[in-house]
Structures are given as C-alpha cells and as structure tokens.
Amino acid sequence: MKGKKILLIVTGGIAAYKSALIVRLLVKAGAEVRVVMTADAANFVTPLTLSTLSKNDVYQDFFGSNGSWNNHVELALWADAVLVAPCTANTLGKMVHGICDNLAVAVYLSAKCPVFIAPAMDLDMYAHPSTRQNLAAAEDFGNIIIPAESGELASGLTGEGRLAEPENIIGILRGYFGRTATSLGGKKFLVTAGPTYEAIDPVRFIGNHSSGKMGFALAEAAAERGAEVVLISGPTALSTSHRNIILHRVTTAREMFDKVFQFFDDVDVAIASAAVADYRPKETATQKIKKKEDEMTIELVKNPDILRTMGERKAAQKLVGFALETQNEEENAMGKLRSKNLDMIVLNSLRSEGAGFRNDTNHIKILTEKTTREYSLKPKKEVAADILDFLENEILNS
User: Fold this and answer.
1) Could you give the cofactor binding note from the entry (predicted)?
2) CATH of the domain at 65
C-alpha cells in the first residue's frame, strides 16, 4: 500500500463513522488518502475528522467554500483506487444508473482506476432484489464488491448488511495491490469460457447454462497480474476491455477447438473453464424443423475433446481443468485430472448452494496429485484470485 493513492468516498449511512478508522489504517499502511463525502455523510462523521486523519482537504461539493471548483475529473485520475465505504443503497443506485447529482458520483463516473464498493445498509434493504440487481450490475461493470458482513445492525436487528470491518477492507486492498504488481508478467495465458451451442436447425440448438462469468473473471485476474491473455469465449453477454486480453468469440465446440489450437503451443498456462458440449447433432437441418409428431429423435455424435487434446499435446504448458460434479465428486475430479493429463483441477458441485452456472458466487475445491484444498463460498472474482494464487504458489513456483 505504500505510496498508493486512495480516494475514499463516504456516503450517508450510520456506518460512516467507520470511515475514520479506514482512513487511519490506510495512512498507517503508507497510502496517500483523499476523501469525498456526500452531504448526508457529514451528518454521521465530520469533514474535520477525516481531513485531520488524511492530512488533506475533504471534498463535499463541486465548489469549495471560497468559490473554487473541485475538479471531479482530476480527483478521479489522481487515484490508484477508489473506495466507496460505506456505500448506501441510494448511492449504489445512482452509480449503477449514472445519476450524477453530486460530486461523489461524478468522481466515480470519471474513474479509470479500480473501484471497490463496500455496501452497508439494513438487512432487508441489502436483501432486496433491487439492491442485489444493482450490486450484480456494478460488478459486471468491472467494480470490485466487498460484501457486507453479518452482525448487529443499527436497527437493532441482526443479519447481513453490516459494513465489512475496516481491517478486512484494508486487507482486500492490500491483496489487490500485492497481486496486481507483476507476478505473472511475461506469462502467456489461454482461457476458455462460457458454453458452446450446437445447432439443431437455424433456430434451435443444444447448449448449457454456463454464463462465462468464471472464465472472464480468471482472464481479467491473470491480466491484472501482468499476464498476456487470449480469452476464447462461447456465446455470452460478457465483454472485457482490459488491455492485456485479446477476446475471440466462437459458437460451437469445433470452432472452439480450432481457435484453441491456434494459440495453445505458444502459451505458458491454459485454463479450460468453458462448458463445452460433449455431443452435437449428427445432421443440422438447413430449415426450421416443423412440429409434426409427438416424438422426435435426434442422433448425436461426439464433439472433439478439447481438454484431452490439450493434455496430449502439452509440452511445458501448465494445464488447469474444471469439473462440475453431482456425485462421487473428488473421485471423478481426480479421474479427470489423470486421464486428461492436468496439472490441477477446480471442482465445483451443483449440490453446493450458490455454486455452479449463472451464479455470481462459487464454492470450489482445488485438487492436484498431492493436494486438496477447499475454499468457502465467494464472489467469482475472489474465486479467480484463489485459483491464480494456488496456480502461482503450488504449480508455477513450486
């Protein structure tokens, strides 16, 4: 954290009193801190307190008391990271929908650095579908969510919604800057993501529920650590703008196979997180199949096994696979590790609540011939960090 420039945005919730400790811990860690407050935040903690602790002026409005302009663009471009803590439901909604009616949101909309959002609100507000949707949207925009914790709330209720403890927030920032230095600098990664679609006719296909979120999170996490990443994605709604990522979009398993082996020989690490269809229709109708009988038979044939072929062809590459299991999970995952010549495999279970397709969270185990390590349920961006930490510590640097 030494020398990092952190712009703290404080919004108007009771948890704002913790912002004083956040500033103190950031300064103690060696960071340079500037603070922007919403008007309501000043009802919970004084600007003088945060100014004294940060040793910088606190910004509350577009114009200072002497009529000077507080340039939101300059503030945003100054920062190495923006931290919104606490982030109320109101400010979260404004950030997601671009309602720029105060300095805090103007700074957020101008930021080109990583943005960390630490929500804090009562448990019913935190659980409300609109809040969940806004948090998911904020994460899809590339922001890093620091989930609220469980505990006693200002309302007297106990539950999820409490601002993450300041020490935990600082730990996440430390981890981010520690990981994003250059730990994977000079490495070339290939990552596959999403589903494949196998056409039955021009309007129907065989596919699966993969969203691609895990693969995109892995690609971005590797890129943030300095790797050059080739990301090959099946049909998803996701995108990436990271300068270290080259994105190639495909539709079918055969297209993914061809694209993978354009790059595989030249990479250091391949991570196969795509959910590739095992089978495709033997024949694809050129016109839409009309409904005629009560039953219809479609003959299927095997698709090429991309992961097995990578395992057969690999030389010095490190190969990471994924296993989604419903029974005999570790046994089946270890069988896949061995049969496909993998260096490590990431196991997730459809029986784990919050894991699997389309979720924003995942619960994984990582297995090698020597090690099994289980992790708690986490947002997929944090899961990606755990996977890369394991890869670096146990595979690349062992």
Assistant:
1) Binds 1 FMN per subunit.
2) 3.40.50.1950
Q: What is the largest CA-CA distance in the chain?
A: 80
Asked if 238 and 326 sit in the same domain, the reply is yes
In the set 208, 303, 328, 362, the catalytic residue is 208
The CA distance from 33 to 31, in Å, is 6
Residue 14 is assigned to a ligand binding site:
no
Kindly give the pairing relationship between strand 378-379 and strand 361-362.
antiparallel
Cβ atoms of 198 and 279 closer than 8 Å: yes
CA distance 84 to 119: 8
Tell me: is residue 314 an annotated ligand-binding position.
Answer: no
Structural domain including 372 reads 188-396
Distance of CA 11 to CAs 16, 164, 201, Å?
7, 15, 53
User: For residue 120, which of 228, 237, 19 has the smallest C-alpha distance?
Assistant: 19
Give the count of beta carbons closer than 10 Å to the beta carbon of residue 286. Answer: 7
Q: Does 340 appear as a known binding residue?
A: yes
390 annotated as belonging to a binding site for a ligand: no
Contact 189, 206 (CB under 8 A): no
Ramachandran category for residue 122: left, alpha or beta (phi over 0 → left; psi -120 to 50 → alpha) = beta
318-356 confidence digits (pLDDT tens): 999 999 877 888 999 999 999 999 999 999 876 666 555
The tokens describing 263, both together, are 């790059």
As a dihedral over the C-alpha atoms of residue 369, residue 375, residue 378, residue 384, rounded to 10 degrees, the angle is: -30
Is 195 annotated as contributing to ligand binding?
no
Based on the domain organization, do 74 and 43 belong to the same domain?
yes
* Banded model confidence at residue 224, pLDDT cuts 50, 70, 90: confident
Number of domains in the chain: 2
Give the Cα separation of 172 and 164 in Å (integer). 10
DSSP 71-110: -HHHHHHH-SEEEEEEE-HHHHHHHHHT---SHHHHHHHH
Q: Is 244 a catalytic residue?
A: no
